[in-house]
Amino acid sequence: MSLTQKIVAGVLKQPFSLYQLMTYDRTKPVNMVVGSMFSLYKGWIHSDIETLNLLKRSDWEKYFEENSIDRILAEHVWEHLTEAEGKLAFQHCYTYLKPGGFLRVAVPDGYNPSEEYINYVKPGGTGNGADDHKILYNYKLMSGFLQEIGFTVKLLEYFDENGQFHKAPWKPEDGMIRRSADHDSRNQNGKLGYTSLIIDAYKS
To answer: Which residues form the Methyltransferase type domain (predicted)?
Structure first.
């Protein structure tokens, strides 16, 4: 039975994310997904709150040296943190990223002009998981938080204050965001049904 089959069958008592965190090859580029309960990407280490709590430095220290991670990917994680928690989690990412490494973060977009979308994603909204949302980001708010930490920000997808959508080229292999303009099935025939605020934050 392969490792994947054992995991699916529940043979392994430890979660897959813990196995990856304990056994990854430190001689190769280190790419990590945080909050990865539902997505598994080849070549990436996966973690969740049970194995790596973003807010606990002691959790980071268990698995990583400072300045050792090449990429961190977080799709719809930061909206579940308060403003103070989000800043602390950004600081931990900055500490453990290599110089030149980056965090790709995606969250619901507070400047989306659709009232239906906002009602779906806002804290206490109608969408799945929105009852646990703590903050609704826009590109200005999140960029400001990241820059306070020391990151250099590159905006990939976002709505501005006037409801205009902006999109820069980005590569899924550098961190796949499924809830995005090109990869969400709700976006069809040139109409954007669901997008995210997506930012790459680089450590200089």
So the answer is: 59-103
Domain boundaries defined on the chain = 3-203
Rounded CA-CA distance 103/151 in Å is: 9
pTM for this structure? 0.91
Average pLDDT, rounded, for the chain: 92
Give the whole-angstrom CA distance, residue 40 versus residue 109: 24
| Residue range 77-136, pLDDT digits in tens | 999 999 999 999 999 999 999 999 999 999 999 999 999 999 999 999 999 999 999 999
Amino acid (one-letter) located at 199:
I
Q: Which CATH number is 3-203's, of 2.60.40, 3.40.50, 1.10.10, 1.20.1070?
A: 3.40.50
Cβ atoms of 193 and 120 within 8 Å: the answer is no
- Calculate the alpha carbon distances from 35 to 20, 28, 104, 164, 168 in Å: 14, 22, 13, 29, 25
How many CB atoms are located within 10 Å of the residue 95 CB? Answer: 17
Question: In this structure, are residues 45 and 31 in contact, taking their beta carbons and an 8 Å threshold?
Answer: yes
pLDDT one-digit tens code per residue, 11-42:
343 578 899 999 999 999 999 999 876 678 99
Give strand ranges (E) for the chain.
Answer: 31-33, 45-46, 69-75, 97-107, 152-159, 165-167, 197-202
